[in-house]
Design goal:
mainly alpha, 2 helices
Length: 117
């Protein structure tokens, strides 16, 4: 084997190692993007479920307190309907935030869901 042939083989080896390193770095970036996408998508889905639960919980509490304590009379009879209505308004606010979260999830998936990972 001549010296120039040996040098060519060394250069080819360096070139091959460089290409493999670039490919591994590209795969690492792609996997990191996939992981960030999956984590953010899961976090948005979890928040959406929490808003749905909050809406149902506060609406139910407001309705139950309005039904159960509606027959009460006395000097503080205005307190129960006010509390019930405030719980229901809180549930409405939670529902609006939940709708905003659903819109955010849809926008996120539209924007990043079509990426070729």
């Amino acid at each position: 084997m001549s010296k120039s042939s040996f040098e060519q083989k060394i250069e080819q080896g360096f070139y091959t190692i460089g290409r493999q390193r670039d490919q591994l770095a590209s795969d690492k970036r792609r996997l990191a993007r996939q992981l960030r996408y999956a984590q953010h998508s899961a976090r948005l889905a979890s928040l959406s479920k929490q808003y749905d639960f909050g809406m149902a919980f506060f609406a139910a509490m407001g309705t139950v307190s309005l039904i159960v304590f509606d027959g009460r009379s006395g000097s503080d009879a205005w307190l129960t309907p006010a509390l019930s209505l405030s719980l229901m308004l809180f549930a409405c606010g939670s529902a609006l935030r939940g709708r905003k979260m659903v819109s955010r999830i849809r926008t996120f998936n539209d924007r990043f869901g079509s990426w070729q990972f």
